């Protein structure tokens, strides 16, 4: 018999448990071989990440489709943030981190010499777990990035919008805040310090700030984990809308959230391995891996 079934795997006394509580199983390559319509926006091939001697991410090969929401789930320490950071070379900022393998953005290798990291991180933007607005006005939080990139002065925004009859900075601020579903709440206090906003508002401001430099991909690391249910639901609606124009990759510990907002889900498990990757419905309703099923149903992790 060549195929291993779930029941065969769990009926021995010698079953080994990891610290996260999962048992050992042989991962099948077909479990991560996700086929989808359309173009891949980001692709990793044989990606390994080490922190010193610690091998945090092992041989991850995955294609992320454009203009959709991809959820990354798995127990704490399995490498989700590490993987997310490898997609815009944020791991470069961690001294002990070393990356082997390939990541391609629109088919172009990002781990090669001569890559402009500022440009890369502008096109592949990131939103973090705790909102981190600059201690400046709401207005300045939005205009900071485009000014840094020279987009306001060089007229990029006017070209994008196909008009030049308005104050570009004002229009950029309004457009970004509207896209992030924050405009109505802050329109009359744009000059107030951003740190005076609520947590949920600060997070939407950070999303607006990310959008203001006209990215193509938005990476989000547990963007709603510190928010109450109403603020969370606003962020979820926003992510859903953003996927019409952007490629969104989101890490979440909230299974219902992953099931609600993502088109496809990648499950990482202990040891930094991608175990299963498929349509979100398939992952949540009928996963191939017993460990993935156990994780999703709350048996460990
Ligand atoms: N800056 C770092 N320096 C050293 N080791 C790190 C660093 N960041 C992560 N690691 C290690 O890499 C492994 C993966 O960590 P990572 O933060 O990617 O996990 P995660 O899946 O995002 O976990 P969580 O759900 O808790 O956020 C862990 O063993 C962690 O200790
Ligand atoms: Mg993390």
UniProtKB/TrEMBL annotation:
Residue limits of the ABC transporter domain?
42-296
* GO BP, one annotated term: phosphate ion transmembrane transport
One GO cellular component term of this record is: membrane
- Does the record's keyword annotation contain rRNA-binding? no
Q: Is this entry keyworded Transport?
A: yes
Pfam (any one):
ABC_tran
**Record's PROSITE patterns?**
ABC_TRANSPORTER_1 (PS00211), ABC_TRANSPORTER_2 (PS50893)
User: Spans of biased composition, class Basic and acidic residues?
Assistant: 1-12
Q: Keywords for this entry? A: ATP-binding, Cell membrane, Membrane, Nucleotide-binding, Transport
Q: Which GO terms describe its molecular function?
A: ATP binding; ATP hydrolysis activity; phosphate transmembrane transporter activity
**CDD domains assigned to the protein according to its UniProt record, in alphabetical order:** ABC_PstB_phosphate_transporter (cd03260)
Cited InterPro entries: AAA+_ATPase, ABC_transporter-like_ATP-bd, ABC_transporter-like_CS, P-loop_NTPase, PstB-like
- Region of interest (Disordered), ranges: 1-20
| Name assigned to this protein | Phosphate ABC transporter ATP-binding protein
The organism named in the record is Haloarcula sebkhae
